[in-house]
Specification:
31 strands, about 15% strand, elongated, alpha+beta
Amino acid sequence: MEISVDLYKMEISKISFNDIAQAIQNENMTVSGGDLLENGLRRNVRVIGEFKSANEIADIIIKQENEEIVYLRDIATVTFKEQEKQSYAREFSQPVVMLDVTKRGGENLINASTQIDAIIAKAKESYFPSNLHISKTNDQTNDTKTMVADLENSIILGIILVVVVLLFFLGIRNALFVGIAIPLSMFMSFIVLNALGVTLNTMVLFSLVIALGMLVDNGIVVVENIYRLLDEGYTKIDAAKYGVGEVAMPIIASTATTLAAFFPLAFWPGMMGEFMRYLPITLIIVLLSSLFVALVINPMLTSVYMKIKEDEVNFKKIVILSVLLFSVGVILVIAGLILGIKGLNAAGLLFIVAGLLRVINTKFLTPATERFQNKFLPKLENFYERTLQYSLRGKRPKWFFIGTFGLLFVAILLFMAFPPKVLFFPETPPKQVYVYLEYPIGTDIEVTNKLSIDVENKIQNHLKKFEVDGKNVLITSVIGQVGEGTSDPNRGQDGGTTPNKARVTVDFVKFIDRGDINTEDVLIEIRELLKDIPGVDIIVDRPADGPPAGAPINIEVSGDDYEQLLATAEDIKQFIKNKNISGIEELKLDVEQGKPELPIIIDRQKARRLNVSTGQIGDALRTSLFGKEISTFKDGEDDYPINMRLTDKYRYDKAALINQKITFRDQSSGKIVQVPISAMAHTEASSTFSAVKRKDLDRVITIASNVLEGYNATELNDQIKEVLGKYDMPKNISISFTGEQEKQAEEMAFLSKALLIAVFFIFFILVAQFNSTSTPIIISLTVLLSLIGVLLGLIVFRMEFVIMMTMIGIISLAGIVVNNAIVLIDYTNLIMVRKRLEEGLSAGALTKEIIYESIVEGGKTRLRPVLLTAITTILGLLPLAIGININFMTLFTEFDPEFYIGGENVAFWGPMSWTIIFGLTFATFLTLVIVPVMYLLLNNLKFKLNRNQ
């Protein structure tokens, strides 16, 4: 309810704003007078005076003096009116009311989204009008569901690849013994994770992908060793007992070393730690579960069901069974298609696959497996034995040892000569594009809104090229917002309204639906489309991946004198601009200068002589311009503020405002006095800054910018640092590079420390396992040497060094590469002891020939498990590294695999996966050749020094 006052009528009537306010406040009330006792009844006495309509307010008498009555309607207009616009919102240029819903911390996003959908559906049926259109935009559950589904499918594909490899190396029966560790370990892990209150998020699922290849490692070593003893003539029970007994301590130690690598990551501090902590927690639980399965479940199953040779099969019976399964499957699929029941489709396809696999396994896989095991593997073992014998003869061990460290030195030099781009966090294809518009501070919201409409229309017209049959195949929405809540988050939060700012959000369809369209190219096109609009700052950006870290370029300028600080910050910004460094989008200060201001300078002496205070002048001007809420109009259950101010023609008239009269009753004479404000004050046009910002109590101004596509933030910051080295900085002003660069340095420092702690833990465990310091040094060196694979992989394939993902990959690698070396050396030591006893030598006495033969025999015997553990780990990660996406759910229910390569997951998790793959591939060579070489050199050295071993 607005009371729009006519300034001149109010002054002629000698009425002030306070007179109007008091008259309305004194009338618009209901007062309880207590209880009236009458004829034994108590009646509640109430004086009812609340307004029922705008006309009642207009009919209020404001003044009655000398028989002259002034009604409110004589000097003002009373109307219902909308409040002034503080924001606008549109979708596809149509006005909308937006409701932002934010998930509470610790709650399930998908559950929240599902409940919102249910509420909207119910409201559509029973409450909302039929012509009301409701749309859900920026629903992050779509991305979450896609990532979760892709990771789940990566796990399934990884399991298939791992089982296929196990099938060829171990045979179908032994492959099933090992493969059972996958579902059992994951099932046990889910129970523990659920008990700890951990939800199934993307970090947990990715941890399962990493663990996929590792959790079968222990089972491979146990089953392979039991199988070998059974083949040597032991009974099933004895083979199971002795087989697990021989390798129990090594696999416990190898699992402990892997856990030691991930353990420091569980104490990751800060926001990034909250995001990444689920990785080590999940891996530790999964690997402990796999250890339990390997030491308890696998020996039990092998002692009952393991066989050296499979029984002869009746192919005729298998064909009959397969045809029966195939027929049942076809019937179920036909029924599912007719009835539209997806469950029948899935069941039918499973029967069909089972029927086909039964025949394929008998006719093709089993013979292929036998050929692989009986022909290829023996040849491979013989080749490896000859290679090992060649490597361990004469002076070759020394040259292999020196050559490997020389290769490490070369890899480091190449890495320095051809450094990869350094990123803080992986950059995925943009899911959205944000266009931030900013006029000079003080611009009216209507001006900003007009520009926003033009920009929205430009973008929509440009994106029409992606329309097919009238439907846009790339975008789901174009949302324009003006005013409140439209600031760029990289520049910090702005308090209050921001009428000079607007934001346009372009939302893209899911990656799988984009075809060959690259949204990064679309972002660049939009930036080019809007670059020539004059008088406004336009920033085109993408949403940040991962936890918030600040702007890619973020320079904090701090000092004491704020005026000098502003001037210096502006000068630094211009200095960098003049250097024409390519890749910087737009350097901007987070404190805006030039905010228009109209100070009213009061002559206190004049004002007090006229009995007018600064408070009276300020209250009059504020009421005239901004307005004053003087009461509340009630309409049923609704309350409306009654706001009083001048009519628009006087509100925006500077002369009328400054010449308005302060009306009051003089206490000394009792007469009404009117004093123009211009008699006591004058105005000065000036400008000021928008805010004063502090960090740790120091005054700070931030210069920030995004980085254009195709440029690297770290390289640009290095260039800026080099340029600012030549800038003449005032003595009391200091600068620091913060934002993403500061976070990057902090996380790199933590991860480097975590790697050192992990290596220390691993070394400590190895010392306890081998009761020696020399052997653990050899195994620990494999961690250092495995970096050759990582560095060469990054250089050869020109991949980016992503601080977060590549470093976690290296830490993970530290725990993985030592496992095979532990099992290999432990078994070699066991052979040495046996040969010493066979030769009748005293404890600790060994010959060079025994050492040599033990190393060769140990390497040959452990070749299969070493290759298997490496190959299964690599294949478990390969689908995610390459980005192979097959939707097994839709494949079985709708016969649509939704196959595609790439996506957000491969961009996000690919760097970590490739780091492990590169390092582990080279580490396998280290384990099979260089570890035996170093072990021989060590024992030969001990032999020369005549030390007991």
